[in-house]
Amino acid sequence: MAREMMKGNEAVAEAAVRAGLAAYFGYPITPQTELLEYLSRRMPELGRAFVQAESELAAINMVYGAACTGHRVMSSSSSPGVSLMLEGISYVAGTELPMVLVDVMRGGPGLGNIAPAQGDYNQIVHGGGHGDYRSIVLAPASVQESVDLTVLAFDLAEKYRSITVVLSDGSIGQMMEPCELPPMQPLKTKFPDWAVSGADGRERRYLSSINLDPAAQEVTNFRLMRRWQEIEANEIRYKEYYMDDARFVVTGFGSAGRVALSAVRAARAEGIPVGLIRPVTVAPFPNKVYEEIASRVDGILVVEMNSGQMLDDVVRATRCQAPVEFFARMGGVFMLPDEVLDEIHRMVKGPLTTEGHPRDRWLNRVNIGK
Amino acid sequence: MAMNTADTETVVYSRPDGLTDTSTHYCPGCTHGTAHRLVAEVIDEMGLKAKTIGVASVGCSVFAYNYFDFDFVQAPHGRAPAMATGVKRVYPDKIVLTYQGDGDLASIGTAEIVHAAVRGENITVFFLNNANYGMTGGQMAPTTLPGQKTTSSPNGRDVETQGYPIRMAEMLATLEGASYVVRRSLHDPKNIRLAKKAIRTALEVQVRGLGFSLVELLSTCSTNWGLTPVDSLRWLEEKMVPYYPIGDYKVHTEIANLRF
Fold this sequence. Notes:
The complex is a heterodimer. By secondary structure, chain A is α/β, with parallel strands linked by helices. Chain A folds into 2 domains: 3-196 and 205-234, Thiamin diphosphate (ThDP)-binding fold, Pyr/PP domains (Rossmann fold, 3-Layer(aba) Sandwich), CATH 3.40.50.970; 240-365, 3-Layer(aba) Sandwich (Rossmann fold), CATH 3.40.50.920. Chain A contains 13 helices and 15 strands. In chain A, the strands form 3 sheets. A 7-stranded mixed β-sheet of chain A has the order 3-2-4-5-7-6-13, with helices on both faces. A 5-stranded mixed β-sheet of chain A has the order 10-12-11-14-15, sandwiched between helices. In chain A, strand 2, helix 2 (33-45) and strand 3 form a beta-alpha-beta unit. In chain A, helix 1 (8-18) runs parallel beside helix 6, helix 3 packs parallel to helix 4 (79-94) and helix 10 (287-294) crosses helix 11. Chain A is globular, with a radius of gyration of 21 Å. By secondary structure, chain B is of the alpha/beta class. Chain B has a single domain (32-153, 161-255), classed as Thiamin diphosphate (ThDP)-binding fold, Pyr/PP domains (Rossmann fold), CATH 3.40.50.970. Chain B is built from 10 helices and 7 strands. Chain B starts with 31 loop residues before the first helix and ends in a 9-residue tail after the last strand. At the A-B interface, helix 3, helix 4 and strand 9 of A face strand 1, strand 2, helix 3 and helix 5 of B.
């Protein structure tokens, strides 16, 4: 199929349509809005459901209702909008429904700004909504990967009756790149035996996240966690570059990982034996990959466009077997390859340590805000 | 002479098919049971059971899905109209109804109910107004009457600091998207019969695809009002009905002459 030049947000929207999206509910927020705008044209053209809701609260609950029918459903938003959705997300998780959410992250906290950032990592990866649940979280680094992961998100959501989040950011959502779109899948016509549709010739069904009996709720929570174990066993995805002979490793997800790749290539051109790990599933997190590389490299540099939210996961996974360093830009300031290259040089020069926390060292050596 | 009644007995009253054979958790004197029964009777009479999907809310009716014998989903607090929108947009030919209390619909869920009506969403809302938050133990609701004592307005609702009660039916009736908005009361048999006709009309509106329909049902809460069931019905009639007048606030021309 021919490659087309597409804006990230629109490419994700069309990918969702082709993955069999039956209903979309959303609310405008920059830098995600083109996704909503595109679907406001595309969904009615195909006779599919589209509603611009009165708020993100309403949008996520429209998704919740539609998800109860077993159809493929999606919403999208950006950081503050996703915060508003967290109540509904927890309910969707508690009801064990498949759902896809696209978070095109922007600078924060608070109203912040509309520039790309990665500050929603903890909110999305480590919960956000109340109660015990996990979401599958996929982190694209390009328009093409956004397309591919959007299609995958629907499959994983259905396979595991799970929320699957495509954790993108303002740069990936707004940039135009050539991409190949997936083939058009037909809409589903068969629905699972838990889905509501009207009790025609069968026993009634109901879907709820309430469970007043703590022991019964605990059974649900165990089921969710055992399913998560299965997801951890089957669905971990990551990309690695120049790792065969690497003595040093840079790691970051999404845009930060992509910028880091440019820096790693520049360092390789200088003869520095450095590789890159870019997690594609940030949940489930590739713990074993980090544990393994920590046992054989001299240093790990974590780069993010947040204050080190994934860093904490890397520190935990590497168990202080290797020195970890950290570099980040925050608040919507985009990271540059030269900055990462400088950090690679600093790491290679040393000295490195496993004492103290890499975030503290970073804060101490960077002068911004002092 | 002894009469053999066995073959002359006629069933004059039984559980509607639309209700499950389950004892409800509602308090003695509560009119939720009456409202449930009316909705179920109408669903039976219209033959809608196999194509109806209900949306329960948060509050005393959170377990409505245990009592209605058709498909149900259960919404977060106030969000039932949004969830119903999601279901209805996917299944436009099914009947989608919400069953919500006044804390749910008139406080935390005002945005969702207003915008469901604004969109003319083709759903039916049954709105039970008993002037307080029942499930959490009788706190002040937006519908609590001026001077009414509750656990969170122990000196009576002071309109200077706590505002005036909200008349949802009148407010929603101003919206173009609303096709049928009425208020009824459940305090005596006559009004219960009128409430049933309104429930029937509201569902007819949806069957005909005319848009948003809502029936507000004035209800009792004996436990939290601290009144006997009989006194509760009297309080409803004497205190609530004057503030919340029974009436038709919006009636689409296409169903204006329907009679049941």
